[in-house]
Write a structure and sequence with these properties.
This protein is α/β, with parallel strands linked by helices. It has 14 helices and ten strands. Strand 9, helix 14 and strand 10 form a beta-alpha-beta unit. The radius of gyration is 18 Å and the shape is globular.
Length: 301
């Protein structure tokens, strides 16, 4: 029998209209959005369903929006395939998605998880606003070549590897000037670039002091031992100790996301049935770049 792991998307998966079908067809999903509105003190469902796109894409809004929409999609899976819910024995999420994974695994309540995610989004938005910065996907290069590219492009600016997503797809984050240099120079190394629609240089030292603001938020909420291991972005390993998880979440703000290694480690541990739960299909595509033959079901939102 397959070993099943649930995967939850991160920032960038948002799209106007997400969650609408879930709410229209599933009372349990509607309740998720209603509870979120009570906690957030604004109508998140309306922003998800109608936009405007620019507001939904703002970090302080998109992080709670993806978190809530992904958990609404879990409710759809409970109805359509309850056996999958029973068989899942590991979970992971890309950056923000790690919080969704922790709530699914029972380490955080929905209410506490959403409050922390709201604070995380606000803190990261503030850090991004403080220093004009961005993120660039570098395609077609291995990590060593991307390091060389960063060394050449960095100059006196901040530029760091932020996400190792899959073979040939590595995201770098830095100041606007450094990002522009990466775009100019990548072709010299045989790569190409795509500018990501995010507000700042996530998973770099430019996110200070968002890490300490997140630490304060995490200190105010209880965390339980999850019922299944949650694989961390920071070290690509499974964790069940609440204090370890709390520490890793704080480090995650400044450190690169080891998504490719997480997928390789899950595959190496025998996982061969994956579910991407939430808006978009990015994670399934990344997984296929690591292992073409692996099965990944999409529970869309």
């Amino acid at each position: 029998m397959s070993k099943v792991a649930f995967l939850f998307p991160g920032q960038g998966a948002q799209a106007v209209g997400m969650g609408r079908t879930l709410v229209e067809t599933l009372p349990a999903a509607r309740l998720v959005y209603e509870e979120a509105a009570h906690i957030l003190n604004y109508n998140l469902a309306e922003l998800c369903f109608q936009g405007p796109e620019a507001k939904l894409n703002a970090t302080a809004i998109s992080q709670p929006a993806i978190f809530v929409t992904s958990l609404a999609a879990v409710e759809a899976l409970r109805v359509s395939d309850p056996d999958a819910i029973d068989r899942a024995s590991a979970t992971a999420g890309l950056s923000l998605g790690e919080y969704t994974a922790l709530v699914y695994a029972g380490a955080l309540t929905f209410q506490d998880g959403l409050r922390v995610v709201q604070r995380r989004g606000e803190a990261m938005q503030a850090a991004a606003d403080a220093v004009p910065s961005g993120m660039i996907s570098v395609l077609g290069l291995d990590p060593a070549k991307v390091e060389e590219l960063c060394t050449q492009a960095r100059g006196s600016e901040t530029l760091e590897i932020a996400n190792l997503l899959c073979p040939g797809n590595i995201v770098v984050s830095g100041t606007q000037a450094a990002c522009e240099a990466v775009e100019r120079l990548a072709g010299n190394f045989g790569g190409r670039t795509i500018r990501l629609a995010v507000a700042g240089a996530f998973h770099t030292t430019l996110m200070r002091p968002a890490d300490q603001q997140l630490a304060d938020a995490l200190a105010r909420v209880p965390m339980q031992r999850p019922r299944i291991p949650v694989w961390s972005n920071v070290d690509a390993q499974p964790h069940t100790d609440p204090e370890e998880i709390r520490s890793l979440l704080i480090r995650q703000v400044l450190q690169p996301v080891l998504w490719e290694q997480t997928m390789r480690n899950l595959l190496g541990a025998g996982y061969d049935g994956f579910y991407e739960i939430g808006p978009g299909r990015v994670l399934a595509g990344l997984l296929k770049r690591v292992q073409r033959r692996v099965e990944c079901h999409n529970i869309s939102a």
